[in-house]
Write a structure and sequence with these properties.
The complex is a heterodimer of chains A (94) and B (568).
Chain A lengths: L13 H20 L18 H24 E3 L16
Chain B lengths: L6 H14 L2 H21 L3 E8 L2 E8 L1 H21 L5 H19 L3 H20 L4 H32 L12 H13 L7 H6 L7 H7 L1 H12 L5 H19 L3 H22 L2 H32 L15 H15 L5 H15 L3 H27 L13 H19 L1 H5 L13 H20 L9 E3 L3 H45 L19 H20 L1
Antiparallel strand pairs in B: 1-2
The chains are: A mainly alpha (94), B mainly alpha (568).
């Protein structure tokens, strides 16, 4: 990521990125801890639990990325797949 | 009679003038026609404002209501922003086609009857195809043909449904209907095709990214949202729409996650966002329909903003793949800023328009105690942040340094984007100003501490998931197969196979025929061949010449035989 002579923009320096991670972790912790003081109204029960939004958000993203990854194994094709060249194999999927 | 000029006709006249005029005059039309249309939109009173007798029917080309005005307003506003964005770059015919296309969308907004709706519906199909073709590449031409086939097919299905309803009920009124018979199913399917619903969602991600950088801005706004409006007017509370909508929401996320093309990511996220609206129409309560309308309004703005920022990138760099882009924030700060605002809005981050409109749909689901729907919508909100909110700006403007140092947006493109930025934030910060224009009275407060906290947790931890899972999301130079594979490859190959089988059958029939005719010819010449002067071969049996006496003798024998036969 750090290319010593060209990448001199402050935003991409490893140091900045490290700080950004710290800030992110700090903000994440704050949003969860804030639930001690702020009551999240649960509309369906579980969504009012402590930290539910955090866990649910993370877990659903994990599930979606993994599912997409799995589906990608079957669905991904080379960019030229649909191009007119009909003589090439075309890739029947297994 | 026509007491009120249909606003669509003003824009259509603008489209024609764009074709006729040149230079500054054309620019003036590009910028003023949408504003004149917007003015006309707000002159339309509630109720039927114009009628025309047509055959045995009375058609109602202009009928006003708060819902119709809301959609027409954002359509007209979008034409202005799009015109400002495009007028220096786009060819005149692309602008003219885009304006006629938008005129179709605005026409549908005020259509009081099914016949008017259908006419404007086809106007959209026709001119949006031309906008796709204006991408002016072999890919755009091919995609345009596929797009046209899909929409003409959808139009026919819609027409079949409308004919059925008109014949069986005698009414051409555009009014809520139950999906109970063949006619209404056809109408629903025809409308859903335009909404990019399964199983034909693929047309959207196939066609839109092939258009020009300016064309995709227009395309993103009208077709699918007109379909949402039609669903609100025709099928509110049709519960099957809930599940169709949820499928679209998930489909959009998964396919966008797999995608490498920047604009195709955005195209998939249109399907995703329209899914929220379709789901809301299915829920069908006043709050849900308000949510669908509000979300459509907000969506048009931030999705156009996203397509605009992607368009500037493509215009300046000529590249559109995530694998070729990156690090552009250095020289394109304005475009990056606008793209990020659009991305935050689509994700529904508090203080943006996405938050104040999308949460209304979730709230409607919660109020109806649709637990699964509510939780799936929440998961989808997280997924939107993942696939559009972070993925798009991250891969285009940050990630690696691609080494590209393009100039930032030209002034008009920057201005168009900034106008949309103002609305993205404005609707997010002052939701109540916006809510008063929704079709039903709003009893909803988006900014409660608990709700904001819940969504912040949801979104920020999605962000964490994105950066932790980044290795799993490495971009590959691939496309993902979709249901259009069935007709682009499977049916094509089947036709080719059938074709070659028929060719083989034809070939063997041909061979057989040749053999038979050779045999017949050989036999015929054996029996019929006349005397050949060059050949001393004996002529065929029926071609020989015989003496006249022998013939007379045979006649005498036959006559005798006849006389004998006569006597017995």
């Amino acid at each position: 990521m750090s290319n010593p002579n060209t990448d001199d923009h402050w935003l991409v320096r490893p140091k900045t990125i490290r700080y950004l991670w710290y800030i992110l972790y700090g903000v994440l912790a704050l949003t969860v801890l804030a639930q001690i003081f702020i009551k999240v109204k649960g509309y369906v029960g579980v969504d009012g639990w402590f930290g539910f939004g955090a866990i649910f958000g993370f877990a659903s993203c994990l599930a979606m990325v993994l599912f997409a990854k799995l589906l990608g194994m079957f669905l991904k094709r080379d960019e030229e797949y649909y191009k007119e060249d009909e003589t090439t194999e075309g890739g029947d999927n297994a | 009679m026509l007491e009120h000029l249909p606003p669509a006709l003003i824009l259509l006249a603008g489209a024609i003038l764009i074709g006729i005029l040149r230079g500054h005059l054309r620019t003036a039309v590009v910028l003023l026609a949408p504003l004149a249309t917007l003015w006309a939109v707000w002159q339309v009173p509630d109720g039927v404002a114009a009628t025309i007798p047509f055959l045995d029917y009375v058609i109602e080309p202009v009928e006003g209501s708060p819902l119709r005005r809301l959609f027409a307003t954002i359509f007209a506003g979008m034409v202005f922003a799009g015109g400002l964005y495009a007028f220096r770059l786009a060819k005149w015919y692309e602008l003219a086609a885009a304006y006629a296309y938008a005129a179709g969308a605005i026409g549908v907004c005020f259509a009081g009857d099914l016949i008017t709706m259908f006419l404007y519906w086809e106007l959209m199909a026709l001119f949006s195809t031309i906008v796709v073709w204006c991408g002016n590449t072999p890919g755009a031409r091919a995609a345009g043909v596929r797009y046209a086939i899909m929409h003409l097919l959808g139009g026919i299905i819609l027409k079949v449904g409308i004919e059925g309803v008109v014949v069986h009920t005698g009414s051409i009124d555009l009014q809520p209907m139950q999906v109970t018979n063949f006619d209404t199913w056809m109408i629903l399917i025809g409308v859903l095709i335009n909404a990019a619903a399964p199983p034909v969602s693929a047309w959207l991600a196939d066609a839109y990214p092939e258009s020009s950088p300016t064309g995709s801005v227009f395309l993103s706004a009208f077709t699918t949202k007109t379909a949402v409006l039609a669903l609100i007017m025709l099928f509110p509370g049709e519960s099957i729409l809930i599940w169709i909508g949820l499928f679209m929401v998930m489909y959009g996320i998964i396919y966008a996650l797999l995608e490498n093309d920047a604009r195709r990511i955005l195209a998939y996220s249109i399907v995703n966002q329209v899914g929220f609206m379709v789901c809301a129409v299915g829920i069908g309560t006043e709050m849900a329909l308000n949510g669908a309308a509000a979300h459509a309004f907000a969506h048009i703005i931030y999705k156009a903003l996203l397509f605009m920022s992607a368009g500037v990138v493509i215009y300046r760099t000529g590249k559109h793949k995530c694998t070729e882009l990156g690090g552009l924030f250095r020289t394109m700060p304005l475009t990056a800023f606008c793209g990020i605002i659009g991305a935050l809005a689509i994700s529904g981050v508090p203080l943006t328009s996405g938050f104040t409109t999308k949460t209304m749909i979730s709230q409607a689901a919660a109020n109806q105690e649709l637990v699964a729907v509510y939780l799936l919508l929440a998961a989808a909100s997280a997924g939107v942040f993942l696939h559009a909110g972070i993925k798009f700006p991250w891969f285009v403007f940050y990630q690696k340094d691609s080494g590209l140092r393009p100039k930032d947006a030209p002034w008009n493109m920057g201005a168009a984007m900034m106008i949309l930025v103002v609305f993205c934030i404005g609707i997010g910060v002052f939701p109540n100003v916006f809510y008063q224009y929704l079709p039903y009275p709003v009893d909803y407060q988006p900014y409660t501490a608990g709700k904001v906290l819940f969504y912040l947790q949801l979104l920020l931890f999605s962000g964490l998931a994105f950066f932790l899972l980044l290795p799993l999301m490495r971009r590959t130079e691939t496309i993902s197969l979709d249901t259009d594979w069935i007709w682009r490859v499977l049916l094509f190959r089947m036709m080719k196979t059938i074709g070659s089988i028929l060719a083989a059958i034809g070939q063997s029939l041909n061979d057989w025929f040749k053999r038979v005719s050779a045999y017949v010819l050989a036999n015929a010449s054996h029996h019929l061949n006349a005397e050949d002067v060059n050949n001393d071969k004996e002529p065929g049996l029926l071609a020989r010449s015989r003496p006249i006496g022998r013939t007379a003798m045979w006649i005498a024998i036959l006559l005798t035989a006849y006389v004998i036969a006569y006597y017995f």
